[in-house]
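Shipment paperwork, digital attachment
Item: protein structure file
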Amino acid sequence: MEANLNKYASIIYRQAQRYFDKELEKHGIGCGQQFFLLHINSNEGISMYDLARLGHFDKGTVTKAVQKLEEEGLIRIEVDPKDRRMRRLYTTRKAEEVVKAAYDLRETWFEILTEGLTDEEVRTIGLLMSRMAENAYDYMNGGI
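Attachment content:
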């Protein structure tokens, strides 16, 4: 059974990447940048460190995504006046359309994935996947 779990998780992940890459291409970003853009948008002024921690990403991944978003004119980076080593991230007016599109795409993808499932099945899957994600994170960070 464990092989099937890995197989299906992988298939869903890859198809989601394809879906978001295809749909976000017209906005100049890919699947990888949407997480960062949405979290910057909902946490205006977030630091790169906190953004990395929020998504459990390494600094290099965050730096690369932030550079891409800045190049596309979707975010601006400001030096924190209290701590000149810290950089704060803010979305631009140009980002508003992309953020709305990304949220709409997420909703559509959720509907695609949950087609034919009952509300109870959706809740159960959500709880189980949340536990599995916690287990994976805990294991990789010295837990379990």
